[in-house]
Amino acid sequence: MAIHDLAKKETAHGAVTAVWYDDDGENFVVQHAFVHLSFHKREFEAFLGCLYDSWEKYQRDHGTR
Fold this sequence. Notes:
42% strand; 4-stranded antiparallel sheet; flat
């Protein structure tokens, strides 16, 4: 099993977000604080697209960057 660390970030408030990729199952794992999500690579791509679209809409509607 080959698991790859892809990213890890910590907020100013101490919440940690990390992303891993597992070659064997072709799964991405996202951990944010106590929330754990696992996606097949095709589903992860769709999830990222949804997050991107929501952020773009938020920025348009609320004028923040």
